[in-house]
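User: Good morning. I'm curious how adenosine-5'-triphosphate would be positioned relative to this chain. Could you predict the structure with it bound?
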Amino acid sequence: MTEEPLLSVRGLKKHYTVSRGGFLSRETSRVRAVDGVSFDIGRGEALGLVGESGCGKSTTASSILRLTEPTAGEVIFNGGGRGGAVRNDDGTHPNDVTQFDRAELKAFRRDAQLIFQDPTSSFDPRMSVGGSIAELPLVHGMTDRERRRAIVEDLLERVGLSAADYDRYPHEFSGGEKQRLALARALVLNPDLLVADEPVSALDVSVQADILALIDDLRSEFGLSVLFISHDISVVRELCDRTAVMYLGEIVEVGPTESVFESPGHPYTEALRSAVPTPDPRSKGDHIELTGSVPSPSDPPSGCRFHTRCHRVVQPDHVDVDQAVWRRLLDFRDRVVTGEIDPAALRERLQAGAVAGDQPGGWSETGSSDRGAPEERVDDATRVRETYDLPETLSDPEADRTLRAAIDALLAGEDDRAAGILDGAFTTPCAEIHPELSTHGPLHRAACIRHRAEYEGFGDG
Ligand SMILES: Nc1ncnc2c1ncn2[C@@H]1O[C@H](COP(=O)(O)OP(=O)(O)OP(=O)(O)O)[C@@H](O)[C@H]1O
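Assistant: Good morning! Here's the predicted structure, ligand included:
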Protein backbone atom coordinates (compact mmCIF):
# COMPACT_ATOMS: atom_id res chain seq x y z
CA MET A 1 0.00 0.00 0.00
CA THR A 2 1.31 3.47 -0.81
CA GLU A 3 1.80 5.88 2.06
CA GLU A 4 -0.97 8.46 2.46
CA PRO A 5 0.07 11.91 1.20
CA LEU A 6 0.69 14.70 3.68
CA LEU A 7 -1.63 16.97 1.71
CA SER A 8 -4.43 16.10 -0.70
CA VAL A 9 -6.07 18.97 -2.51
CA ARG A 10 -9.27 18.05 -4.35
CA GLY A 11 -11.36 20.24 -6.64
CA LEU A 12 -10.15 23.41 -4.95
CA LYS A 13 -11.84 26.59 -6.19
CA LYS A 14 -11.52 30.21 -5.27
CA HIS A 15 -13.77 32.62 -7.13
CA TYR A 16 -13.64 36.30 -6.25
CA THR A 17 -16.71 38.42 -6.80
CA VAL A 18 -15.67 41.84 -8.00
CA SER A 19 -17.69 44.91 -8.73
CA ARG A 20 -17.50 45.86 -12.41
CA GLY A 21 -18.47 49.48 -12.31
CA GLY A 22 -17.68 51.98 -9.61
CA PHE A 23 -17.94 51.63 -5.90
CA LEU A 24 -21.76 51.65 -5.86
CA SER A 25 -22.23 49.46 -8.91
CA ARG A 26 -24.32 46.33 -8.46
CA GLU A 27 -22.90 44.71 -11.54
CA THR A 28 -20.44 42.02 -10.54
CA SER A 29 -18.21 39.52 -12.25
CA ARG A 30 -16.66 36.35 -10.96
CA VAL A 31 -12.89 35.99 -11.15
CA ARG A 32 -12.16 32.26 -11.33
CA ALA A 33 -8.69 32.62 -9.79
CA VAL A 34 -8.51 28.91 -8.89
CA ASP A 35 -10.95 26.71 -10.72
CA GLY A 36 -10.92 23.07 -9.68
CA VAL A 37 -7.35 22.23 -8.75
CA SER A 38 -6.32 18.79 -7.41
CA PHE A 39 -2.92 17.47 -6.36
CA ASP A 40 -1.11 15.57 -3.60
CA ILE A 41 2.13 16.26 -1.77
CA GLY A 42 3.87 13.29 -0.20
CA ARG A 43 5.80 13.37 3.07
CA GLY A 44 9.21 14.91 2.52
CA GLU A 45 8.32 15.71 -1.08
CA ALA A 46 8.75 19.06 -2.86
CA LEU A 47 6.06 19.91 -5.38
CA GLY A 48 6.61 22.87 -7.69
CA LEU A 49 3.67 24.94 -8.89
CA VAL A 50 4.57 27.00 -11.96
CA GLY A 51 2.76 29.29 -14.36
CA GLU A 52 2.64 32.89 -15.56
CA SER A 53 1.72 35.76 -13.29
CA GLY A 54 -2.00 35.78 -12.51
CA CYS A 55 -2.66 32.08 -13.19
CA GLY A 56 -3.72 31.51 -9.58
CA LYS A 57 -0.62 30.15 -7.81
CA SER A 58 -0.73 32.46 -4.80
CA THR A 59 -4.49 32.07 -4.47
CA THR A 60 -4.00 28.29 -4.42
CA ALA A 61 -1.50 28.70 -1.56
CA SER A 62 -3.63 31.10 0.45
CA SER A 63 -6.73 28.92 -0.02
CA ILE A 64 -4.85 25.83 1.18
CA LEU A 65 -3.68 27.69 4.29
CA ARG A 66 -7.12 29.30 4.63
CA LEU A 67 -5.70 32.78 4.57
CA THR A 68 -8.53 33.24 2.10
CA GLU A 69 -11.74 31.17 2.27
CA PRO A 70 -11.95 28.65 -0.60
CA THR A 71 -15.16 28.66 -2.64
CA ALA A 72 -15.22 24.86 -2.97
CA GLY A 73 -13.09 21.76 -2.65
CA GLU A 74 -11.23 19.81 -0.01
CA VAL A 75 -7.78 20.28 1.52
CA ILE A 76 -6.98 17.15 3.50
CA PHE A 77 -3.98 17.53 5.77
CA ASN A 78 -2.61 14.41 7.39
CA GLY A 79 0.18 16.14 9.30
CA GLY A 80 0.48 17.08 12.97
CA GLY A 81 -0.44 13.59 14.16
CA ARG A 82 -3.67 13.54 12.16
CA GLY A 83 -2.58 10.70 9.83
CA GLY A 84 -4.77 7.66 9.19
CA ALA A 85 -8.15 9.33 9.68
CA VAL A 86 -11.08 7.91 7.71
CA ARG A 87 -14.04 9.73 6.22
CA ASN A 88 -17.09 10.44 8.35
CA ASP A 89 -20.41 8.73 7.52
CA ASP A 90 -21.62 11.88 5.76
CA GLY A 91 -18.64 11.78 3.37
CA THR A 92 -16.75 14.68 4.96
CA HIS A 93 -13.17 14.19 6.12
CA PRO A 94 -12.09 15.03 9.67
CA ASN A 95 -8.81 16.42 8.34
CA ASP A 96 -10.37 18.76 5.78
CA VAL A 97 -8.80 22.15 6.45
CA THR A 98 -11.70 23.92 4.74
CA GLN A 99 -13.96 22.68 7.56
CA PHE A 100 -11.60 23.31 10.50
CA ASP A 101 -12.87 25.32 13.47
CA ARG A 102 -10.73 27.99 15.15
CA ALA A 103 -8.82 25.61 17.43
CA GLU A 104 -8.12 23.17 14.60
CA LEU A 105 -6.97 26.03 12.38
CA LYS A 106 -4.57 27.26 15.06
CA ALA A 107 -3.03 23.80 15.31
CA PHE A 108 -2.89 23.52 11.49
CA ARG A 109 -1.08 26.84 11.20
CA ARG A 110 1.61 25.50 13.49
CA ASP A 111 2.09 22.52 11.17
CA ALA A 112 1.87 24.36 7.84
CA GLN A 113 4.02 27.46 7.41
CA LEU A 114 4.34 30.05 4.67
CA ILE A 115 7.26 32.08 3.41
CA PHE A 116 6.77 34.55 0.61
CA GLN A 117 8.52 36.89 -1.77
CA ASP A 118 9.04 39.86 0.52
CA PRO A 119 10.43 38.83 3.91
CA THR A 120 10.75 42.47 5.05
CA SER A 121 7.08 42.99 5.76
CA SER A 122 6.90 39.98 8.06
CA PHE A 123 9.31 41.35 10.69
CA ASP A 124 8.40 44.10 13.16
CA PRO A 125 11.13 46.75 12.71
CA ARG A 126 11.00 47.60 16.44
CA MET A 127 11.69 44.07 17.64
CA SER A 128 14.93 42.10 17.58
CA VAL A 129 14.69 39.33 15.00
CA GLY A 130 15.26 36.69 17.67
CA GLY A 131 12.43 38.16 19.73
CA SER A 132 10.12 38.07 16.69
CA ILE A 133 10.92 34.44 15.94
CA ALA A 134 10.62 33.41 19.62
CA GLU A 135 7.10 34.87 19.80
CA LEU A 136 5.65 31.96 17.87
CA PRO A 137 6.56 29.21 20.36
CA LEU A 138 5.30 31.49 23.12
CA VAL A 139 1.90 31.83 21.41
CA HIS A 140 1.82 28.05 21.13
CA GLY A 141 2.44 27.57 24.86
CA MET A 142 6.21 27.39 25.36
CA THR A 143 6.65 29.64 28.39
CA ASP A 144 10.30 28.84 29.21
CA ARG A 145 12.14 31.91 27.94
CA GLU A 146 15.63 30.40 28.05
CA ARG A 147 14.48 27.38 26.12
CA ARG A 148 12.84 29.54 23.46
CA ARG A 149 16.05 31.53 23.08
CA ALA A 150 18.15 28.38 22.80
CA ILE A 151 15.84 26.98 20.10
CA VAL A 152 15.92 30.21 18.09
CA GLU A 153 19.71 30.57 18.39
CA ASP A 154 20.13 27.02 17.16
CA LEU A 155 17.80 27.71 14.22
CA LEU A 156 19.64 30.90 13.29
CA GLU A 157 22.77 28.82 12.90
CA ARG A 158 20.99 26.16 10.91
CA VAL A 159 19.82 28.75 8.38
CA GLY A 160 23.37 30.06 7.95
CA LEU A 161 23.24 33.03 10.36
CA SER A 162 24.76 33.16 13.82
CA ALA A 163 23.36 32.90 17.36
CA ALA A 164 24.62 36.45 17.97
CA ASP A 165 22.16 37.70 15.34
CA TYR A 166 19.34 37.06 17.85
CA ASP A 167 19.54 40.60 19.24
CA ARG A 168 19.90 42.45 15.93
CA TYR A 169 17.11 44.31 14.16
CA PRO A 170 15.56 43.63 10.73
CA HIS A 171 17.13 46.67 9.01
CA GLU A 172 20.58 45.27 9.78
CA PHE A 173 20.03 42.32 7.40
CA SER A 174 20.23 42.06 3.60
CA GLY A 175 17.36 40.66 1.51
CA GLY A 176 18.91 37.20 1.36
CA GLU A 177 19.56 37.21 5.13
CA LYS A 178 15.97 38.28 5.78
CA GLN A 179 14.76 35.30 3.75
CA ARG A 180 17.00 33.12 5.98
CA LEU A 181 15.31 34.71 9.01
CA ALA A 182 11.90 34.03 7.47
CA LEU A 183 12.91 30.38 7.07
CA ALA A 184 14.04 30.23 10.71
CA ARG A 185 10.70 31.59 11.80
CA ALA A 186 8.80 29.19 9.54
CA LEU A 187 10.67 26.26 11.07
CA VAL A 188 10.58 27.23 14.74
CA LEU A 189 7.38 25.26 15.37
CA ASN A 190 8.72 22.22 13.57
CA PRO A 191 6.07 22.13 10.81
CA ASP A 192 5.32 19.30 8.39
CA LEU A 193 4.58 21.55 5.41
CA LEU A 194 6.35 24.63 4.08
CA VAL A 195 4.60 26.71 1.43
CA ALA A 196 7.20 28.89 -0.30
CA ASP A 197 5.57 31.49 -2.56
CA GLU A 198 8.18 32.96 -4.95
CA PRO A 199 10.78 32.90 -2.14
CA VAL A 200 13.71 34.00 -4.31
CA SER A 201 12.17 36.21 -6.99
CA ALA A 202 12.78 39.46 -5.08
CA LEU A 203 16.40 38.57 -4.28
CA ASP A 204 19.60 39.39 -6.10
CA VAL A 205 20.43 36.70 -8.62
CA SER A 206 23.73 36.18 -6.77
CA VAL A 207 21.97 34.97 -3.60
CA GLN A 208 19.05 33.11 -5.18
CA ALA A 209 20.98 29.86 -5.58
CA ASP A 210 22.13 29.99 -1.92
CA ILE A 211 18.57 30.33 -0.65
CA LEU A 212 17.35 27.54 -2.91
CA ALA A 213 20.14 25.29 -1.67
CA LEU A 214 19.24 26.19 1.91
CA ILE A 215 15.57 25.31 1.39
CA ASP A 216 16.68 22.00 -0.08
CA ASP A 217 18.99 21.26 2.89
CA LEU A 218 16.33 22.22 5.44
CA ARG A 219 13.83 20.03 3.67
CA SER A 220 15.91 16.90 4.23
CA GLU A 221 17.06 17.97 7.69
CA PHE A 222 13.52 18.63 8.93
CA GLY A 223 11.75 15.99 6.78
CA LEU A 224 9.60 18.79 5.37
CA SER A 225 7.11 18.64 2.55
CA VAL A 226 7.34 21.74 0.37
CA LEU A 227 4.87 23.43 -1.96
CA PHE A 228 7.18 25.62 -3.98
CA ILE A 229 5.54 28.33 -6.07
CA SER A 230 7.38 30.11 -8.86
CA HIS A 231 6.78 31.68 -12.25
CA ASP A 232 10.31 30.51 -13.10
CA ILE A 233 10.27 26.92 -14.30
CA SER A 234 14.07 26.61 -14.10
CA VAL A 235 14.01 27.37 -10.35
CA VAL A 236 11.42 24.66 -9.83
CA ARG A 237 13.58 22.24 -11.78
CA GLU A 238 16.43 22.81 -9.30
CA LEU A 239 14.41 21.93 -6.25
CA CYS A 240 11.27 19.94 -6.85
CA ASP A 241 10.60 16.21 -7.13
CA ARG A 242 7.38 16.83 -9.00
CA THR A 243 6.05 19.79 -10.93
CA ALA A 244 2.50 20.98 -11.53
CA VAL A 245 1.88 23.52 -14.29
CA MET A 246 -0.97 25.97 -13.87
CA TYR A 247 -2.78 27.99 -16.51
CA LEU A 248 -5.78 30.26 -15.91
CA GLY A 249 -6.84 28.66 -12.64
CA GLU A 250 -6.32 25.04 -13.69
CA ILE A 251 -3.52 22.48 -13.47
CA VAL A 252 -2.75 21.45 -17.05
CA GLU A 253 0.16 19.10 -16.36
CA VAL A 254 1.68 17.32 -13.37
CA GLY A 255 4.42 14.75 -13.07
CA PRO A 256 7.97 13.98 -11.99
CA THR A 257 10.00 17.13 -12.65
CA GLU A 258 12.47 15.55 -15.06
CA SER A 259 9.68 13.92 -17.05
CA VAL A 260 7.72 17.20 -17.25
CA PHE A 261 10.86 18.97 -18.52
CA GLU A 262 12.15 16.28 -20.84
CA SER A 263 8.83 15.20 -22.27
CA PRO A 264 6.17 17.85 -21.68
CA GLY A 265 2.65 16.64 -22.39
CA HIS A 266 1.08 20.06 -22.63
CA PRO A 267 1.96 22.70 -25.23
CA TYR A 268 1.89 25.36 -22.50
CA THR A 269 4.64 23.54 -20.60
CA GLU A 270 6.63 23.33 -23.85
CA ALA A 271 6.33 27.08 -24.24
CA LEU A 272 7.36 27.76 -20.63
CA ARG A 273 10.32 25.44 -21.04
CA SER A 274 11.39 27.03 -24.30
CA ALA A 275 11.51 30.44 -22.62
CA VAL A 276 14.32 29.27 -20.31
CA PRO A 277 17.66 30.48 -21.69
CA THR A 278 20.10 27.67 -22.27
CA PRO A 279 23.83 28.13 -21.75
CA ASP A 280 24.52 25.61 -24.52
CA PRO A 281 25.60 27.59 -27.64
CA ARG A 282 24.80 24.57 -29.82
CA SER A 283 21.19 24.64 -28.68
CA LYS A 284 18.84 25.02 -31.63
CA GLY A 285 16.98 27.84 -29.89
CA ASP A 286 13.53 26.32 -30.46
CA HIS A 287 11.82 29.24 -28.77
CA ILE A 288 8.03 29.02 -28.87
CA GLU A 289 6.40 32.40 -29.11
CA LEU A 290 3.03 32.42 -27.39
CA THR A 291 0.64 34.57 -29.37
CA GLY A 292 -2.07 36.67 -27.77
CA SER A 293 -2.34 37.80 -24.18
CA VAL A 294 -3.49 35.75 -21.19
CA PRO A 295 -7.31 35.80 -21.23
CA SER A 296 -9.16 37.15 -18.20
CA PRO A 297 -9.97 34.61 -15.47
CA SER A 298 -13.41 36.23 -15.22
CA ASP A 299 -14.20 35.09 -18.78
CA PRO A 300 -11.97 32.11 -19.57
CA PRO A 301 -12.07 30.64 -23.10
CA SER A 302 -14.36 27.66 -23.75
CA GLY A 303 -12.89 24.18 -24.13
CA CYS A 304 -9.17 24.09 -23.40
CA ARG A 305 -8.38 27.46 -21.81
CA PHE A 306 -5.02 27.54 -23.57
CA HIS A 307 -6.40 27.13 -27.10
CA THR A 308 -6.39 30.87 -27.85
CA ARG A 309 -2.58 30.90 -27.60
CA CYS A 310 -1.60 27.30 -28.33
CA HIS A 311 0.92 26.58 -31.10
CA ARG A 312 -0.45 23.03 -31.42
CA VAL A 313 -4.13 23.99 -31.58
CA VAL A 314 -5.94 21.24 -33.48
CA GLN A 315 -7.30 21.78 -37.02
CA PRO A 316 -10.79 20.58 -37.88
CA ASP A 317 -11.15 17.61 -40.25
CA HIS A 318 -11.88 19.86 -43.23
CA VAL A 319 -8.70 21.96 -42.92
CA ASP A 320 -5.15 20.85 -43.64
CA VAL A 321 -2.57 23.63 -43.54
CA ASP A 322 0.88 24.08 -42.04
CA GLN A 323 0.50 24.21 -38.22
CA ALA A 324 2.16 27.64 -37.81
CA VAL A 325 -0.11 29.04 -40.54
CA TRP A 326 -3.14 27.55 -38.76
CA ARG A 327 -2.24 29.42 -35.57
CA ARG A 328 -1.97 32.66 -37.55
CA LEU A 329 -5.27 31.99 -39.34
CA LEU A 330 -7.00 31.64 -35.97
CA ASP A 331 -5.34 34.82 -34.70
CA PHE A 332 -6.53 36.64 -37.85
CA ARG A 333 -10.04 35.23 -37.36
CA ASP A 334 -10.09 36.46 -33.75
CA ARG A 335 -8.94 39.94 -34.76
CA VAL A 336 -11.73 40.14 -37.34
CA VAL A 337 -14.38 38.67 -35.02
CA THR A 338 -13.51 40.99 -32.13
CA GLY A 339 -13.55 44.00 -34.47
CA GLU A 340 -9.87 44.69 -33.86
CA ILE A 341 -9.42 45.07 -37.62
CA ASP A 342 -11.51 48.04 -38.70
CA PRO A 343 -12.29 47.75 -42.44
CA ALA A 344 -12.72 51.51 -42.88
CA ALA A 345 -9.31 52.20 -41.36
CA LEU A 346 -7.83 49.34 -43.37
CA ARG A 347 -9.23 50.72 -46.67
CA GLU A 348 -8.15 54.22 -45.84
CA ARG A 349 -4.64 53.07 -45.21
CA LEU A 350 -4.53 50.99 -48.36
CA GLN A 351 -5.71 54.00 -50.34
CA ALA A 352 -3.05 56.10 -48.70
CA GLY A 353 -0.49 53.53 -49.76
CA ALA A 354 0.08 51.78 -46.46
CA VAL A 355 -1.36 48.78 -44.63
CA ALA A 356 -1.59 47.90 -40.99
CA GLY A 357 1.65 46.56 -39.57
CA ASP A 358 1.79 43.60 -37.30
CA GLN A 359 2.38 45.71 -34.22
CA PRO A 360 -0.65 47.60 -32.94
CA GLY A 361 -0.59 51.02 -34.53
CA GLY A 362 2.29 50.12 -36.82
CA TRP A 363 2.04 50.59 -40.58
CA SER A 364 4.31 49.59 -43.40
CA GLU A 365 4.58 51.78 -46.46
CA THR A 366 3.85 50.09 -49.76
CA GLY A 367 4.60 53.07 -51.96
CA SER A 368 1.77 52.32 -54.39
CA SER A 369 -1.19 54.53 -55.23
CA ASP A 370 -4.41 54.72 -57.26
CA ARG A 371 -6.25 51.82 -55.63
CA GLY A 372 -9.73 50.69 -56.57
CA ALA A 373 -9.47 48.86 -59.91
CA PRO A 374 -10.26 45.10 -59.63
CA GLU A 375 -6.66 44.05 -60.29
CA GLU A 376 -5.49 46.53 -57.63
CA ARG A 377 -8.07 45.02 -55.27
CA VAL A 378 -6.34 41.64 -55.60
CA ASP A 379 -3.17 43.42 -54.68
CA ASP A 380 -4.81 44.83 -51.56
CA ALA A 381 -5.88 41.34 -50.54
CA THR A 382 -2.31 40.17 -50.91
CA ARG A 383 -1.11 43.02 -48.74
CA VAL A 384 -3.64 42.14 -46.07
CA ARG A 385 -2.21 38.63 -46.06
CA GLU A 386 1.31 39.99 -45.81
CA THR A 387 0.33 42.22 -42.94
CA TYR A 388 -1.09 39.36 -40.91
CA ASP A 389 1.74 37.02 -41.84
CA LEU A 390 -0.50 34.75 -43.90
CA PRO A 391 0.83 33.05 -47.06
CA GLU A 392 -0.12 34.42 -50.46
CA THR A 393 -1.84 31.09 -51.09
CA LEU A 394 -2.80 28.46 -48.50
CA SER A 395 -1.80 24.88 -49.31
CA ASP A 396 -5.40 23.80 -48.66
CA PRO A 397 -7.47 25.16 -51.61
CA GLU A 398 -10.78 25.16 -49.72
CA ALA A 399 -9.26 27.04 -46.78
CA ASP A 400 -7.67 29.45 -49.23
CA ARG A 401 -11.04 30.18 -50.85
CA THR A 402 -12.51 30.86 -47.41
CA LEU A 403 -9.71 33.22 -46.49
CA ARG A 404 -9.98 35.04 -49.81
CA ALA A 405 -13.74 35.48 -49.41
CA ALA A 406 -13.26 36.85 -45.89
CA ILE A 407 -10.55 39.31 -46.94
CA ASP A 408 -12.70 40.47 -49.88
CA ALA A 409 -15.61 41.06 -47.51
CA LEU A 410 -13.32 42.97 -45.17
CA LEU A 411 -12.03 45.14 -48.00
CA ALA A 412 -15.63 45.78 -49.08
CA GLY A 413 -16.32 47.12 -45.58
CA GLU A 414 -18.45 44.11 -44.58
CA ASP A 415 -16.67 43.14 -41.41
CA ASP A 416 -19.62 41.19 -39.97
CA ARG A 417 -19.75 39.04 -43.10
CA ALA A 418 -15.97 38.54 -42.95
CA ALA A 419 -16.28 37.49 -39.30
CA GLY A 420 -19.09 35.06 -40.14
CA ILE A 421 -17.08 33.43 -42.95
CA LEU A 422 -13.99 32.95 -40.79
CA ASP A 423 -15.91 31.89 -37.69
CA GLY A 424 -17.89 29.30 -39.62
CA ALA A 425 -14.93 27.66 -41.34
CA PHE A 426 -11.94 28.07 -39.08
CA THR A 427 -13.00 26.16 -35.99
CA THR A 428 -11.05 23.95 -33.62
CA PRO A 429 -12.14 21.05 -31.42
CA CYS A 430 -9.89 22.62 -28.73
CA ALA A 431 -12.54 25.30 -28.28
CA GLU A 432 -15.25 22.65 -27.77
CA ILE A 433 -13.65 20.00 -25.58
CA HIS A 434 -12.43 20.69 -22.06
CA PRO A 435 -9.62 18.15 -21.63
CA GLU A 436 -9.18 16.36 -18.30
CA LEU A 437 -5.75 15.32 -17.03
CA SER A 438 -4.89 11.97 -18.61
CA THR A 439 -1.86 9.70 -18.50
CA HIS A 440 1.12 10.94 -20.47
CA GLY A 441 3.85 8.82 -18.83
CA PRO A 442 4.61 7.08 -15.53
CA LEU A 443 2.97 9.23 -12.80
CA HIS A 444 2.78 11.98 -15.42
CA ARG A 445 -0.53 13.49 -16.54
CA ALA A 446 -1.42 16.27 -18.93
CA ALA A 447 -4.70 17.86 -20.02
CA CYS A 448 -4.60 18.18 -23.81
CA ILE A 449 -6.97 16.67 -26.37
CA ARG A 450 -3.96 15.59 -28.41
CA HIS A 451 -3.67 12.71 -25.92
CA ARG A 452 -7.00 11.36 -27.14
CA ALA A 453 -6.66 8.59 -29.71
CA GLU A 454 -8.45 10.61 -32.43
CA TYR A 455 -6.08 13.59 -32.10
CA GLU A 456 -2.92 11.71 -31.13
CA GLY A 457 0.26 13.35 -32.38
CA PHE A 458 -1.60 16.30 -33.83
CA GLY A 459 0.60 19.34 -34.43
CA ASP A 460 3.79 17.40 -33.66
CA GLY A 461 5.26 17.89 -37.10
N1 LIG B 1 -8.63 39.69 -3.81
C1 LIG B 1 -8.83 39.53 -5.10
N2 LIG B 1 -9.94 39.99 -5.71
C2 LIG B 1 -10.15 39.81 -7.02
N3 LIG B 1 -9.32 39.16 -7.86
C3 LIG B 1 -8.19 38.68 -7.32
C4 LIG B 1 -7.88 38.83 -5.91
N4 LIG B 1 -6.67 38.24 -5.68
C5 LIG B 1 -6.25 37.75 -6.87
N5 LIG B 1 -7.14 38.02 -7.84
C6 LIG B 1 -7.06 37.63 -9.27
O1 LIG B 1 -6.96 36.22 -9.30
C7 LIG B 1 -6.08 35.81 -10.34
C8 LIG B 1 -5.00 34.92 -9.75
O2 LIG B 1 -4.14 35.72 -8.93
P1 LIG B 1 -2.89 35.10 -8.14
O3 LIG B 1 -2.21 36.21 -7.40
O4 LIG B 1 -3.33 33.92 -7.38
O5 LIG B 1 -1.97 34.62 -9.35
P2 LIG B 1 -0.43 34.24 -9.33
O6 LIG B 1 -0.26 33.14 -10.31
O7 LIG B 1 0.03 33.97 -7.94
O8 LIG B 1 0.25 35.55 -9.89
P3 LIG B 1 1.41 36.43 -9.26
O9 LIG B 1 2.64 35.60 -9.37
O10 LIG B 1 1.43 37.65 -10.14
O11 LIG B 1 0.98 36.70 -7.85
C9 LIG B 1 -5.55 37.10 -10.98
O12 LIG B 1 -6.35 37.37 -12.12
C10 LIG B 1 -5.78 38.13 -9.92
O13 LIG B 1 -5.98 39.40 -10.51
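The longest strand covers residues 28-41. The chain has two domains: 7-240, 323-427.
Let me know if you'd like a different ligand tried.
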